[in-house]
Amino acid sequence: MSEYLIPTREAQATLVEKRSEFIGHVWPIETEEEARACIEWAKKKYHDARHNCWCYIVKDGAVRYSDDGEPQGTAGQPMLGVFQKEGVTNVCCGGILLGAGGLVRAYTQASKMALDESGISVVRRWVEVLVDCPYNFFERVKLEVRKEEGSDGFCQVIEASSTAAAMDALEALIRGYEQFLGVPAHHVLAVLATVMTVPNGGRMEP
Predict the structure, then answer these.
(1) Residue-wise pLDDT tens digits, 19-32
(2) Do the domain assignments include residue 171?
(3) Residue where a domain terminates, one of 79, 96, 124
(4) Which CATH number characterizes residue 75's domain?
(5) Residue-range definition of the domain harbouring residue 10
(6) Euclidean distance between the first and final Cα of the chain, in Å?
(7) What's the chain look like in SS3?
(8) Has residue 59 been placed in a domain?
(9) CA-to-CA distance for 100 and 109, rounded, in angstroms?
(10) Mean predicted lDDT score pLDDT of the chain
(11) What is the pLDDT confidence band of residue 165, given thresholds at 50, 70 and 90?
């Protein structure tokens, strides 16, 4: 899988319905241990809650939920469904009920509100490539990288003594990353096909 979705940050949202307060709390996590720690924190903070329901999803790992005394399938599982529907992983969510009476849609809505408050981020694999080019071609290189949906944060200006040697080294580097990480290199190679790295004072070739 080349990319996946995670919660952007820890967030909380509150829903009041029929004199009951439902608190949805979302945490980005990477391990089951982190998820368990978040759940324990919520239980201590809301020790007086009627129910402390929860769910979590660890990428390529555990998927768990708890109704914490609510009727089976009415709290933890609907909360879990919110994140599965959105395709979000590496997430832990606590659904806290303060007051009397639980509603399936209230747990679901509070969880969705907390996720909306957190935001969703895309995790992608990136290949860092060093492109040698003369200073007067620097802006052109950045434009070509952006056009291929890359990041220009890695661009550096370095004197290149040999065009052929620079291109060979770059292609070998890209192919090495492709083999090691399983990341397709066609975007980066498309940039190289358009932007040639040339010695200082050379000309830009198509």
Answers:
(1) 889 999 999 999 99
(2) yes
(3) 124
(4) 3.30.230.30
(5) 3-124
(6) 34
(7) CCEEEEECCCEEEEEEECCEEEEEEEEECCCHHHHHHHHHHHHHHCCCCCEEEEEEECCCCCEEEECCCCCCCCCHHHHHHHHHHHCECCEEEEEEEECCCCCHHHHHHHHHHHHHHHCEEEEECCCCCCCCECHHHHHHHHHHHHHCCCCCCCCCCECCCCHHHHHHHHHHHHHHHHHHHCCCCHHHHHHHHHCCCCCCCCCCCC
(8) yes
(9) 17
(10) 77
(11) low
| 0.85 exceeded by pTM | no
Whole-number pLDDT of residue 164: 64
Dump pLDDT digits (tens) for 83-104: 999 999 999 999 988 765 557 8
Residues 29, 65 share a domain? yes
Query: Does 146 score more than 50 pLDDT?
Result: yes
Give residue 160's pLDDT: 45
36: Cβ contacts below 8 Å, ≥ 6 apart: none
Mean pLDDT within 61-83? 93
Q: 21-58 b/e with 16+ CB inside 10 Å = b?
A: ebbbbbbbbeeeebbbebbeebeeebeebbbbbbbbbb
Tokens of 1: 């899988």
